[in-house]
Specification:
Distance between the termini: 125 Å
Helix content: 40-55%
Order of helices and strands: HHEHHEEHHE
């Protein structure tokens, strides 16, 4: 009996050792398999990156070209909101560039295009309200609020009458200028304005400095308008030049000419009819 026991113990030790070896081998195999399996969280990140915001340019319908004739009383507010439309698109394009590779399949629409549309609705409504105070309120401008992502990055006219993206297309040669500024695409020709200085009476010495300063300002205003014309070549619609260039220029010139007349009128007869020199035209 005492001799059989050691043999039994030896068999038990051998069996336990073999089992341990099998278990260890299984652990090694399992560990190797896990090491070759991609991490589930990293796979999710990869999918999110593939479905994320793509590079490109946000393009929006042009608002300026869709406006009717803007009353002088509303022009400053309309111009301010057209500028705001441009700023909104620039900010959205910057947001697009800053978030490339982020979010899921709806990221661009939810985080960029959707909020941009809401801002544009409010802005175009302010434009319509400003015009509607003294003229017929333009209808349907809300339809110009939604924008889209141009994955090619070429860009189109923005809601403020300027282009975004990397488009370098030249203005169409078919665009022709009209004296009243109603062109199919701005940028053809140059702004031409009546000369104010020859129409002035004798200027009192006490008013000479102020008159000269405002005559210089009139020249600067024309230069700025011509620069604006060049910068917006090929943009806008049939009313773009009138609404965005000639109209604001006429308002500036009227204020400047009034200052000239007032300066002369302080010590002499105030010249009459100078307001008729405020309006300018577009010449080829």
């Amino acid at each position: 009996m005492s001799r059989a026991l050691p043999k039994y113990n030896k068999r038990r030790v051998a069996f336990i050792g073999g089992a341990a070896a099998v278990a260890l081998s299984g652990a090694i195999v399992a560990g190797s398999a896990l090491a070759g399996t991609p991490d589930r969280s990293s796979g999710t990140d990869g999918a999110r990156t593939l479905a994320a915001a793509a590079s490109g340019t946000i393009t929006c319908p042009d608002v300026a070209s869709r406006l009717p004739a803007v009353p002088a009383s509303a022009r400053a507010e309309v111009d301010r909101n057209l500028t705001l439309l441009r700023t909104q698109i620039q900010e959205a394009n910057q947001r697009l560039a800053d978030t490339v590779g982020q979010g899921g399949p709806n990221f661009v629409n939810n985080a960029i295009l959707g909020p941009l549309k809401d801002k544009r609705v409010a802005t175009v409504n302010r434009i319509a309200t400003a015009i509607g105070r003294t003229a017929a309120r333009p209808a349907g401008l809300d339809a110009l609020a939604p924008c889209a992502l141009d994955a090619g990055g070429t860009g189109t006219d923005t809601g403020g009458g300027t282009a975004t993206g990397t488009s370098s297309a030249a203005p169409s040669t078919a665009a022709t200028a009209q004296p009243a500024g109603g062109t199919v695409g701005a940028g053809v020709g140059a702004v031409s304005c009546p000369d104010v200085a020859p129409r002035l009476p004798a200027v009192p010495a006490s008013a000479q400095a102020e008159v000269d300063r405002n005559l210089t300002l009139l020249r600067t205003q024309i230069q700025e308008a011509n620069q604006r014309l060049a910068d917006t070549a090929g943009q806008g619609g049939p009313n773009f030049v009138q609404n965005a260039v000639l109209g604001p220029l006429a308002d500036k010139r009227k204020s400047t000419i009034d200052r000239i007349a007032i300066a002369i009128g302080r010590t002499s007869a105030k010249p009459e009819g100078l307001d008729s020199l405020a309006a300018c035209t577009l010449t080829q």
